[in-house]
Amino acid sequence: MIQLGDQLRINKFYKKAATKAKWGVLVTQPQGPWTSLLGYSESLKTELYTFIDLATKKMHAAVTVSDTGTMANRMVTIKKDPSFDLLKTFWVNLDDKTKRELLVVDSRKLIDYVENKYVNKVKEDFGKCVSVANNLRWRYWKCHICSQVYYCFTDCQRHILDNHVQKFVPDPSARPKCVDKVLADMICCGKWEPVNTVAAANLIKDRAKHGEEFVYVNGWCSDWPEAKDEERSKILKQFAQVLKSSCGNENDTLSCTLWDSLIYYTERNLQLLEVPGSYLDKCSFFKNPQCICFLDLKHLEHILNYFRQLTTDVRASLVPKVVNRFWENSRVKETIGIERLTSNLLLDGRLLCEEEHHFDDTGSVETFKSSGIYEHVIPEGDKMVSWVLDCPEIDEKLVSQMGEGVHNFEIWLAALRIVRGMVRKKESYYDKRHRMVTYDKMLGEAETICNREDNRKNVNQRSTYASALRMKCEELVVIQDDDTKCFLNVVRDVLERAPSPKYEVLTDKEYMESISGLSTAVQNDIVIKSLWKLRKFLTKKFHLIDSKILLNEFTQGELHEFPKLSAIEYRMVVLPFVKKFLQGKLKKMIMKTKEDDFRLQFLRIILADEEDKLRVGVV
């Protein structure tokens, strides 16, 4: 977790690491026969406390990636470089031919530069990254499970998802229904302002008295008096945003059952004194989303928190953000070609121009007969100087990871585990929903049997509900199928007055013994009450499981982009070395110039840098 926090600059990982370590401290105290491990326990606790301190310090000191590393921030740093203005002036005075020649990087001299300045491991890994003559690709995609290599993201993504992620395709008819487009449009187009319920109640009574109705346009009526309530308005705006984000074109996670539960909650908790319910039904009051704007602050806060839990998965949604962040950091705008005979690197000709570059996501290597490809390039501005100086220190760890083809390996595996976990969850959610649907169906069968007894014309032929249910069980027990098992389960739960479905798997004999023993003692009113409780519980659970399924499927779809972490981009290694090489080349050109002013200014800058380094060393 601490390593992830270091790589991503995200406080959440440091916080989680500290929490895990604190939990570890609580469970490391040996008890009973394990007291012999006391020495080991103390050592482990010391290590955990070290982790807690480290995570806490990093958490307070961390700066998020979004705050650093932007092009604007880097340009400010570059412009503070004392040599920037000098190089800029020197560049402007160079002729076009010399500028074009700088785009041709002598591969032999570049390799000599790396060999003279860096340790053997860096040289070895750099050699792997710059040697692309065989496959002519700066970028490839690697599966970290079977080491399969691809030169197309789609092919790599398909391979990983097809071969290394468990497949589960549910029956389309089993998928929970989302709110339709009509309701989604109503939700998205409304103002979502709080309504003054006292004034609204008086308005309703007045219109009901005169036989007038409220006219709704796309779910909203402009006649309702707005309340001057900043707190309610703030909560409503947040709630509206949650709803809108759950029923957009790309994110259909608002289930019909969850919406129905919201309207039911609103109907139960809305207080409109002396307002006839029949009038509200007549004007379709509760069929329009504006009815939610009538709720008071307490109930609005409740539904906001509840809906946030059901429509957002903070942990899983973090992964796509991390993936996209790493992907953006690995994208390169500059192409690099190769001169056939010399293997010299030919930099992107657009570097001499002021035009904006687009990302080169293919990473293919073009080969050219000679450097004559730059003859048509007319240098403009000093963008090349900024590009050359925009170079952090060489990251030896990154060079090693790219050279060995294991860049982002740990995060890739973590993302794969999360994706696999999402698939397992999806399967378990659908299995649970199937059991609930079957239970709901059998609950309806039990209610029908009870109603049938009430409808018998001959009172003497009527049986108690419990007896009628028992006789139906005796009739069905010879049929060995899932529906029969579920019906026996339902009847047993009803007669036992179970507060919720048990979904137990028993033998037919065990079911019938329980049902037969209870059927003689349970009165009709108890059966009715038990059926009602089970139905109520099931209704509540349906919108929970439906929301989980829809959120899981949406998040899983977002996570399918995680193979982007498979990218191995050699230019991320090669370009920093090229920039360092060109910096040295430009400085040598300044020292060789006949202009004394340039040489003197440059020498002063070098001396000032050396004095700063010595001063820091003394301190």
Automatic annotation (TrEMBL):
GO molecular function: hydrolase activity
Keywords: Hydrolase, Ubl conjugation pathway
Domain of life: Eukaryota
InterPro entries, per the entry: DUF629 (IPR006865), Ubiquitin_hydrolase_53/54 (IPR052398)
Pfam families: DUF629
Domain DUF629: 87-541
Protein name per Swiss-Prot or TrEMBL: DUF629 domain-containing protein
Native source organism of the sequence: Arabidopsis thaliana
Organismal lineage: Eukaryota, Viridiplantae, Streptophyta, Embryophyta, Tracheophyta
